[in-house]
Structures are given as C-alpha cells and as structure tokens.
Write a structure and sequence with these properties.
L,D-transpeptidase catalytic domain-like
Length: 241
C-alpha cells in the first residue's frame, strides 16, 4: 500500500516538473516579449511599448516579405533627441540611433499633427516598406511605400523619402531649440544618410509611431494583419510626454 502511494506521489511530482507545451499563440507572445526585452536593453531610450507595437507590425510584414531590419521612429519624443532606432532583429542588435525630422506642419519641437494628404507638409504614421534609392534634389534618398491603408498609402505620390539634410544636426537643435523640419520626410543627418539608407534599403520595415487613437485602433498591421486592431488598449499604447 505504502509503495503504491509512494509511486503515485512520485508520478504526480514528475508530472508537475514536466515542461508545459506552449500553444503557437503563447509561444509567439513569449518570443516577442523576449525580443522586446533584448532590444530595450540595446536601446534603453526607446519605449518598450513602442518597440512591442513595431514588432507586431513587423511580424505581419514577415508573413509575405522576409526581412530582419526594423527601423522605429517615435514621434512622441521631441526632435532634439535621437528618436530613430534601426535594429537587426535577427541578430538582436541596435545598428543606429539617430535624430530624425518631422514635417513642417506637424509641429515645432514636438510633432502633434499627422496626415496622409498630399500638400499637407505633415509626417505620416504607420508601417512603411523601404524600396529603391535614387539621387535627387536632397541627394542620396530612399523611397518609402506606405502599407498602412489611408494612414500612409500616399507616401509615394507625396515623395516621402528618407534623405540627409543639413538642418538635422545637434548644432541646429542647440541653436534653434529644435531640428529643422521637412515637407513630411523623415530626414536624417547628412553624415549618416548614405550608410543608414544602404542598411535599410530594399524591403525592410520602417515603423512611425505617435499615440494617435484613430491609427492605433484602425491599423490592420497592429491587429491580426487582415483587420483593424480595435483591441489596442491604453496600456498597449504609450502616451506622448
């Protein structure tokens, strides 16, 4: 009798110690949480909740487009601080942390208004795919394709590109209290433009964030990739300072 009880107890104890199989959904969540944690350690000035949303959008893109380079722009931060991060999510490394401009009509040091409309001179939110490069009025530039519906799908017709600009610099920020503003393009420092562009060109993801509720609740890339999100809560979406 005692032997039977002992063996039963041992069997129960062993079952408690056995690894619990994760469902695919839980495994994906665990992997994302781990990635967010690792990237946050590499980029402590980046908001982990913004990174989590960016990775959610990246996962949607990866269903059809293999890519491991993720650029994150946090427009809720002032233009005087580096608010563009470029990650290699495969290697879990930070590649760049840079100043980035917002559109002239989006605001002064802080961007507060965003638009997809031609002629608005405002920045657009959402997920973009990088395309090819060219040399134009602003020098070496990288075309962006907006894939977030009516939040940024006019990016190509608006000529929203990544390019270098002399008004994006710490010196300009110090003298003016903000960096210069673009016609809507996420412009970067001239000295880093070519290297950054060549790193992210050809179908990587650029994620531009601001706590705009219409976008957070309407973007399919923040939902299940095919429908709008509608489930993004206040806890998931960090607010502007």
């Amino acid at each position: 009798m005692r032997r039977t009880v002992f063996l039963s107890f041992c069997g129960l104890f062993a079952s408690l110690l056995a690894p619990v199989a994760l469902t695919p959904a839980r495994a994906a969540t665990a992997n994302t949480d781990d990635l967010v944690h690792t990237l946050s350690l590499a980029a402590p000035a980046a908001n982990p909740k913004v990174l989590a949303l960016a990775i959610r959008a990246l996962r949607c893109v990866q269903r059809t487009t293999p890519t491991h380079i993720l650029s994150v722009i946090d427009y809720s931060q002032p233009s005087t601080v580096p608010r563009l991060w470029v990650f290699d999510v495969k290697q879990r490394q930070l590649l760049f942390r840079e100043l980035v401009a917002h559109g002239r009509n989006s605001g002064e040091n802080l961007a507060t208004k965003f638009s997809n409309a031609p002629g608005s001179l405002e920045s657009s939110l959402g997920t973009f795919i990088t395309e090819d490069t060219y040399s134009g009025h602003n020098g070496y530039s990288l075309r962006l394709k907006g894939i977030d519906g009516d939040f940024n799908d006019n990016a190509q017709s608006r000529a929203i590109v990544i390019h270098g600009a002399s008004y994006v610099s710490p010196a300009f920020a110090k003298s003016q209290g903000r960096i210069g503003r673009s016609f809507g393009c996420p412009a970067v420092r001239k000295g880093v433009a070519r290297k950054l562009i060549d790193t992210i060109r050809d179908h990587s993801v650029v994620f531009a964030y601001y706590p705009n509720q219409r976008w957070l609740q309407g973007s399919r890339l923040l939902g299940n990739c095919t429908e709008n999100s509608a489930q993004i809560s206040a806890n998931d979406a960090p607010q502007a300072p």
